[in-house]
Each structure stands twice: as structure tokens, then as C-alpha cells.
Amino acid sequence: MELKFEIKRFNELSTQELYVLLQLRSEVFVVEQNCVYQDIDGKDAKAIHLLGTYNNELVAYVRIFKPGDYFEQASIGRVVVKQMYRDRKWGYDLMKEAIQATETVFNETKITISAQLYLKKFYESLGFNQTSEMYLEDDIPHIEMKRS
Length: 148
Fold this sequence. Notes:
Strands 1, 2, 3, 4, 5, 6, 7 and 8 form an eight-stranded mixed beta sheet that branches. The protein has a single domain, classed as Aminopeptidase (3-Layer(aba) Sandwich). 27% of the residues lie in helices and 33% in strands. It is of the alpha+beta class and 148 residues long. The protein contains three helices and eight strands, in the order βαβββαβαβββ. A hairpin with an 8-residue loop joins β3 and β4 (74-81).
């Protein structure tokens, strides 16, 4: 059984969908990474949300922005796969779907991301190239990467 993907604008998310996507983001970015930061940053309303479900459970998620809403170019962020499913390599499926959604929804092929440094090779395998020096974001090493 594979992931089932769905794209939704903020106002199309049900209360339940919003709750579980925020729960997943918090589970990984706050608890698992032991990082106190403001995940609910006021930007979700501008994003489109890509939800990946398996057996009716949200297990993968990203949010996508059109150019100018986060970076100068279109961008993908909050890339997350539930920990117990990471051995299935669904991160690749999720990012390929997110890249396709950026092209389909926004007609954009140039994408900027703020990537955690340890995922550099993962993003390079998807066509992204490092475009900045390492910087700290919420005490986690990051790099800017672009895909054109």
C-alpha cells in the first residue's frame, strides 16, 4: 500500500485535518528534535498543504508557498514524515509530489528551501543545490538550497 496524496488550501482543511497536521509537525519539529520554537507562525493561511495519508492516518506533510510569500521563489517547507514510517523512503515520494504540486498549482519550477544541513544529500538527490553558508535556525544547522 502506498501513500495517498491530497493538496488543500488552508480554507479547505477540515478542523480535524488541521489538528492532525499541526500535531505531526509538533511531534517531529518540537518534541523529536527537542526544539522549542513557534511552529504556528501565521504563514499557514498563505500556503497550500500537501497531505500524505496511509491507512487513513496522516504520515507525511509539506506546505508550499508561491513566489514572494516566503522566499523570492516558490518554496517548500515543514517537510515531515512520521518517524515510524521513515524506513519506507516516503520522504522522496513526498518531495517529488511537492515539486510536482509547485509546478501544477503555481506554474513554478524554481524552488527555494531552508534545509536542515544533515539532509543536504537527500535534497541534492531531488535536484536542489546549496546556495548559502550554514546558518542556525532555532539552533539547528540549516542551508538554503535552490532547484531550477
